[in-house]
Design brief:
By secondary structure, this protein is α+β, with helices and mostly antiparallel strands. The protein folds into 2 domains: 241 residues, BirA Bifunctional Protein, domain 2 (2-Layer Sandwich), CATH 3.30.930.10; 93 residues, Rossmann fold, CATH 3.40.50. Helix content is 41%, strand content 20%. Strand 15 and strand 16 form a beta hairpin. It is elongated. The protein starts with 14 loop residues before the first helix and ends with a helix. Bound molecules: zinc ion (2 copies). The site of one zinc ion has 8 residues, from helix 7 and helix 10.
């Protein structure tokens, strides 16, 4: 019969990679807790409208990449393609804006995008997501960069760039829109079909186009950065000053725009040349209008997401200390009864014990212990039980000794011998 396999772009995560995922999670928890963030678990499935209204209907994510379906009740639902939308929904639904002056929250989990799978990019991928609501001062922008820096240090990742830009506010964007329309009007014939549509709906999105021809056109375009209003310029200057104060080097990339509509002012990407064409593995920015646009009170917001798969690719290989282990070889029914007793004691003392589930010959069990690379083997057969002893064989030195058949004594010897 044909075996059932995972969907394209979906996969199992196990072994060394899963170990890295756990390390990432642990390092992230450490610094997010230190800076006052608390975790929220969000649903994976939400109303499609949530993503259309937050991310923007002219974005690639909403137009092409969401797993969207109509459920039995006739509602359009989507698997979350990112976490900010759900965080904003939760912030409003849980009424946090009414009870807290500022809210620092984070979440970790799978996201879903129907993209062409490529190296380090899957249709089900994992993100750490960090959001702050209620702080409009640029100090928080810098604090998030500081948190990212500590987090990457903890993971021994040092080869990366922090690229920053300001995409301005409504005011500066409105004046830039006119400049942009004027520019693209002269280059219309060079734009792809998608971009011609974007030109009507949201010309800023043309900067996201991956079409080489469009990239050449946008390379010549005027920059939003040069149209920033005074407030946005001051915000960006202060942000840079604070980041420098934290002792962190950033690079201003005036062409950096993020592929979502909701960003305002500061945006940033953490990139690595070790990742190939799509270099970003963390990205984020400010979204000062989003909470209000979603029906809440005017509340500043800022956040970032970490691509866990891509981050794991950047982590150095760990050399793990081998764990010393013990195998229990028991022959005969009476010895087998002792297995449960020993297993109970070892488990509560934190000693990993290996053994065979099947009643096998001593020779077979010793071969098995050798395969498992156990350092010690306890041997208990009828002879040993008669003499009220257990044989302890050291597999490295090949020497053996007899211990009294006393569980406390055995445990204390194992603890002693197995400690690294
Ligand atoms: Zn502005
Ligand atoms: Zn295009």
């Amino acid at each position: 019969m044909e075996k059932i396999r995972t969907l394209r772009g979906f996969r199992d995560i196990l072994g060394e990679e899963l170990g890295k995922f756990r390390d990432i999670e642990e390092a992230f928890r450490k610094y997010s807790t230190r800076l006052g963030f608390r975790q929220i678990e969000l649903p994976i499935l939400e109303k499609t409208e949530l993503f259309v209204r937050t991310i923007g209907d002219a974005t690639d994510i909403v137009e092409k990449e969401m797993f969207t379906f109509i459920d039995a009740g006739g509602d359009s639902l989507s698997m979350r393609p990112e976490a900010t939308a759900g965080m904003v929904r939760s912030y409003l639904q849980e009424g946090l804006y009414a009870t807290e002056r500022l809210t620092k929250v984070c979440t970790i989990g799978p996201m879903f995008r129907h993209e062409r799978p490529q190296k380090g990019r899957y249709r089900e991928f994992h993100q750490i997501d960090v959001e702050v609501f209620g702080v409009k001062e640029p100090l928080i922008d810098a604090e998030l960069i500081f948190m990212i820096r500590m987090f990457l240090d903890e993971l021994d990742i040092s080869r990366y760039h922090i690229e920053v830009n300001s995409v301005g506010c409504k005011t500066c964007r409105e004046s830039f829109r006119g400049i942009l329309l004027e520019f693209f009007a002269t280059r219309k014939s060079e734009l792809c079909e998608d971009c011609l549509r974007r030109l009507e709906k949201n010309p800023l999105r043309i900067f996201d186009c991956k079409n080489q021809q469009c990239i050449r056109v946008t390379a010549d375009s005027p920059l939003l950065f040069n149209s920033l209003c005074d407030e946005c310029r001051d915000h960006f200057d202060l942000f840079q000053k604070y980041v420098t104060g934290f002792g962190i080097k950033i690079e201003v990339n005036k062409r950096l725009v993020r592929g979502l509509d909701y960003y305002t002012k500061t945006v940033f990407e953490i990139t690595s040349d070790d990742l190939g064409a799509q270099k970003a593995f963390m990205a984020g920015g400010r979204y000062d209008d989003l909470v209000e646009e979603m029906g809440g009170p005017a509340t500043a917001g800022i956040g970032f997401a970490v691509g866990v798969e891509r981050l794991a690719m950047l982590m150095p290989q760990k050399t793990e200390e081998p764990v010393r282990e013990c195998f229990f070889a028991c022959i005969g029914d009476r010895a087998h009864d002792y297995l449960i007793l020993l297993l109970k004691a070892c488990s509560s003392e934190g000693i990993p014990l290996k053994y065979s589930y099947e009643a096998k010959s001593l020779k077979a069990q010793m071969r098995y212990a050798d395969n498992l690379k156990c350092d010690l083997v306890l041997i208990l057969g009828d002879d040993e039980i008669e003499k009220n002893i257990v044989t302890l064989r050291d597999m490295t030195g090949k020497n053996q000794e007899e211990l009294p058949l006393n569980i406390d004594h055995i445990i204390s010897v194992l603890k002693n011998r197995l400690s690294p």
